[in-house]
Amino acid sequence: MEPKDPNQNANASPASAEEKTNKSRRNFLRNAGLASLSAGATTIVGKETIGDPVSGKSPVHEGVTPDDSRAMHGGAPVSDIPLKSTNGKLELVLPPIKERVLALKQLLIEKKLIQEQAIQGFVDYYEKFVGPHLGAAVVAHAWTNPDWKAQLLAPPPEKPFQAALLIRDFLFNTVNPDTGKPYLIPQLTFGLTIGPEGEFIRIVANGEQTHHGKTLFVHNLVTCTVCSCYPQALLGTQPMWYKSQQYRARSISDPFGILVEFAEDANRGTAERQAQFQAYANKLDELRVWDSNSEVRFFVIPEMPKQWIGLTENELRKRVTRNAMLGAEILYV
After folding, report:
1. Contacts of 123 (CB under 8 A, 6+ apart)
2. How many CB atoms are located within 10 Å of the residue 7 CB?
3. Which SUPFAM superfamilies does this one have (predicted)?
4. What range does the domain containing 110 cover?
5. Which pLDDT tens digit goes with each residue over 2-61?
6. How far apart are CA 285 and CA 103, in angstroms?
């Protein structure tokens, strides 16, 4: 099945464009179980090194049991537990998010509005096949191919989402050294360029940039202040912290504070990593926050540590983390 060009939507009427997008998403959901079977667990590569989730924990408050379920989805120092104060003690306003989601899921299944197999197929596709390793492959290829990276970052005005096509061609035509198969095949995207939530994607990069003759060191942070819009086609399922109200609010009001907390969690008290983060922070001229929405998703190419120069593209791919591709953390040596 030949993927469509997402830029063709620019000439379509708003109604027809929305109708096509919704139909494509419905088709994907309907066939998600088949996709997971086609992908298979053998496609998981470098699980221990690619996008290794940060095992953050919820803040501990007296009288409150932390929701540690976030750890399995890439927990972070940003808490998602709604609290209230009663007689000087903090108490939960709602049950932990995992309990709420499971309760809603069970209710929908009982009412036969959804099927458990379809849900599991959807989850398996993103967790086992996509994961964050497709995004990591894109980052590594951009690092080792400056001209390709430049095309990702500066699409022509008439094709604002050209990056989706460039990434599609790379993933379809490049063999994953760990599996001997292409990173992605058209049949698994169900007619979408690189899969749901990847059609309309813009790429930004961290590091030195020249703007109007002035060189700046820029860091980009991705958020979604409304819900959890996110480049799923490259990064897999959203981590819990990305969907939390705290992150959505603080990524706008205190983005540098977010970086500091992620650094503290990733450093785990090591002086060397603390020094690396401080050196990175000292170089910052601008910290840009990108608010993803239903019209466009954002994806970050993190700065590559200089110590990695000379590594192969495959070696670089296995060092890229999911959080770095959202700009929530830097990459450590």
Report:
1. 237
2. 19
3. Nitrile hydratase alpha chain
4. 89-129
5. 344 444 444 444 445 445 544 543 443 344 333 333 332 222 222 222 233 333 333 444
6. 46
What CATH number did the domain enclosing 184 receive?
Answer: 3.90.330.10
| Whole-number pLDDT of residue 153 | 96
In the chain, the number of structural domains is 2
148 located within any domain: yes
- Strand 214-223 relative to strand 207-211: parallel, antiparallel, unpaired? antiparallel
Check residue 12 and report its DSSP letter.
S
Q: What does the H/E/C string look like for 88-133?
A: CEEEECCCCHHHHHHHHHHHHHHCCCCCHHHHHHHHHHHHHHHCCH
Region 215-221: mean pLDDT is 96
d(CA 125, CA 92): 33
Residue 84 confidence (pLDDT): 63
Residue 280 and residue 262: Cα distance in Å, rounded? 14
Taking alpha carbons only, the member of 207, 226, 210, 229 closest to residue 298 is: 229
Tokens of 15: 């109604």
Residue 48 lies in a domain: no
Other C-beta atoms lying within 10 Å of the C-beta of residue 85: 9
